[in-house]
């Protein structure tokens, strides 16, 4: 029973956070809602036994990327209610009939496609049991050093590239 | 491997009989419900004790600082002023909540909640004793690092939400300080993970012994330096001691909690003191032998076999001894943290960043490489084991 | 490998619930006990006696952003090294330690190159020191000699 409660809590947190990100007008509030979403996703990972993945989601996303985004927003001066200055009608192309028709048609097409795909699954749906959960850290470690050692090393070069690139972009221009 | 509370309690027949009784009474298998109750009661106890430690921490800080500065400190409320923290708590509850005019109310209310949430969630993995660990997660220390960074977000939001220049500066500086010092702390923890062979706190503590020469801090010279790197990083992560620029009293008024009044300020302070305790506990578990008692008294085997006590009493005496060992070591480190605060002058913000990125991170990386080579060359033996083998080899001649 | 059940995450949720509950209780108790008389003067931001001018939400220096970028890269590096570090001891015991020493060294050295690069280019300095080119130095000297 706790499995179901845990799953519902995590899924609810993810959905609530995601809806909050989309519907809020304040950029800072959106970042904080994103924090909630990432927490929920970490809970979902933990639900299916990916404990290392859940912890690294917490460390890297909730602890790093959210702060990065908050700092980036502060770089541009915070959000000072710019949603109120331009009402949704005043931005060109927003809120007129063409936009609504286009949005409505795309929503209909996408949801019908998704429902068709899901209907194919649901007919042959059997609920299975999860295998007993074991610690995944040692398995990931062994695989990273034996089968996927190239991926491991290349990821460090990728990180180096990200570091150099980001530092080069964020450096103030001379003169 | 140390189990969680539920598994520890389950090994006693009394508890098993209780579960069977409740199952018969309710009609379904009550083990899940009983597990929940055990966890809830233990968590409640831990939360209360932590709140008490947080409050007494403020009292201890004032008394110790008074001692260092040759004055008295609080001595009016209760014998030796020990009830001072209760008086402070009552005062804080009665203070008016002032929302600054241009503040962001939702985030203003959310920041202390996030700080407290992050700190309480770290309590779940702290190894108080082998049977009393709430949840011996397989990714224990990694989870702790992750949830501890929530406090950084809370510091930033607290500074941002109040819309005062002091708060904003304090919040930005505090958040960048916290995230910077996570890097040497993570790398030093990595070197301990190398030695312990696992990420859970059970691995950390079970691979050390009760005596000082069996602790990880004396395992090799690299972990010795690593302990100090971890300690300095821990001071900076909790915005304490010489790194308290984000809440600097003489420079930023009160930094990121300038505009907070009453209970919200109390919650921030409580979160900070509990976080110091938790991180001292992590340092003790990783470097100083955790809850291990000398002569292996902790697992109660001696009491059951030699003294002939029933299992439940013998094991619980062992647990109490382990708890005492852990708490003593943690409080000793806590005392050092308070001592350091009143000894050193505050460090400037650019010096804070220089210390982290130009000194601590290279030292931590060097320690990591050092531990890797030590373990490879000496086959996981500690310095003392090598010395004793050298000494014993000349005597006996057998391994 | 020992298996665990999801019950192990129960204390985490219980403790988070306690944290939220503590805040709600204290705020609720405080609503009853404390006064609430807002007036415009109390709600001004505190600036040591001066009248506060403008909001605090202005553009911040880019150095905070650079620090958080460098932190993210090192955080991901640490996160990737955790599983390899947890397996190291077992590998050394069975005598295959050299493989791991090699891969760990390659991984760490690539990131050491990164931090050395940032150090050399001055990204780690809190206060950036700009290097003047030779003409600019001569120009400044020329101005000083004339003055």
Question: Would you write up a description of this structure?
Answer:
The complex is a heterotrimer of chains A (175), B (399) and C (147). Chain A is mainly α. Chain A has a domain at 2-123: Four Helix Bundle (Hemerythrin (Met), subunit A) (Up-down Bundle). Chain A is built from 7 helices and 1 strand. In chain A, α1 (2-23) runs antiparallel to α2 (27-47). The longest helix of chain A is centred in the middle third of the chain and has 27 residues, at 97-123. Helices cover 67% and strands 0% of the residues of chain B. The radius of gyration of chain B is 23 Å and the shape is globular. Chain C has 147 residues and is mainly α. Chain C has a domain at 62-146. Chain C has 4 helices and 1 strand. Chain C has helices at residues 10-33, 62-93, 97-120, 134-146; one strand at 3-4. The chains are: A mainly alpha (175), B mainly alpha (399), C mainly alpha (147). Chains B and C meet through α3, α5, α7, α10 and α13 of B and α1, α2 and α3 of C. β1 of chain A pairs antiparallel with β1 (3-4) of chain C, so a sheet runs across the interface.
Keywords:
heterotrimer; A: 175 residues; mainly alpha; Four Helix Bundle (Hemerythrin (Met), subunit A); 74% helix; extended; B: 399 residues; 0% strand
Brief write-up:
By secondary structure, chain A is mainly α. Chain A has helices at residues 2-23, 27-47, 51-75, 82-85, 97-123, 137-145, 149-170, and one strand at 133-134.
Provide a count of the helices of chain A: 7
Number of helices of chain C: 4
* Strand fraction of chain C: under 5%
Average pLDDT for all residues of chain C: 79
- CATH class of the domain at 2-123 in chain A, named Mainly Alpha
What order do the SSEs of chain A take from the amino end to the carboxyl end, as H and E? HHHHHEHH
pLDDT averaged over residues of chain A: 84
How large, in whole angstroms, is the Cα Rg of chain C? Answer: 28 Å
Instruction: Note the overall shape of chain A.
Output: extended
The proportion of strand residues of chain A reads: under 5%
What is the 3D form of chain C? Answer: flat
| Helix proportion range of chain C | 55-70%
